[in-house]
Amino acid sequence: MFIAMNRFQVAPGSEAEFEQLWMSRESQLHTVPGFVEFHLLRGPERENHVLYASHTIWQDRQSFEGWTRSEAFRMAHRGAGQSKVLYLGPPQFEGFEVIQTVGHSAPAA
Questions:
Q1: 3-state SS string over the chain?
Q2: Domain named ABM: which ranges (predicted)?
Q3: Can you tell me the distance from the alpha carbon of 12 to that of 69, in angstroms, rounded to the nearest whole number?
Q4: From 12-16, 29-33, 79-83, 99-103, the region with the lowest mean pLDDT
Q5: Which of 11, 19, 27, 67 maximizes the CB count within 10 A of its CB?
Q6: What is the pLDDT of residues 38-79, one digit of tens each?
Q7: pTM above 0.85, yes or no
Q8: How far is the C-alpha of 20 from the C-alpha of 3, rounded, in Å?
């Protein structure tokens, strides 16, 4: 499993617009082989920004890399530069290979 994250420092007062931008976009993720799950995370407020992260889970790194080279990726990210005013600097990418997963399982009946 592979987790891809982008961190965004959103300018104070731009939180609602940033969230709406993400909620209204056509992500195309559901069409991509190897995609598992997406989360948009809102983090702590700082003096000059609010931290957000996009968090996608993939079956493996190859699936994620395939997404980044796909037409679906280009479609999902077209116009992304138009929202630069909402955040301070470019997003910071972080990619993680999953080493351990602990899940919650119901006790046997």
A1: CEEEEEEEEECCCCHHHHHHHHHHCCCCHHHCCCEEEEEEEEEEECCCCEEEEEEEEECCHHHHHHHHCCHHHHHHHCCHHHHHHHECCCCEEEEEECCCCCCCCCCCC
A2: 2-96
A3: 33
A4: 79-83
A5: 67
A6: 999 999 999 999 999 999 999 999 999 999 998 888 887 776
A7: no
A8: 23
Provide the CB-side half-sphere exposure for 60 (13 A, CA): 1
Q: What percentage of the chain exceeds 90 in pLDDT?
A: 62
Can you list the domains of the chain with their CATH numbers?
A: 2-97 (3.30.70.100)
Q: Which amino acid is present at 32?
A: V
pLDDT at 82: 62
Phi, psi of 90 (to 5 degrees): -75, 160
Using the structure block, give the residue that is written with the tokens 């056509």: 26
How many CB atoms within 10 Å of residue 72?
18
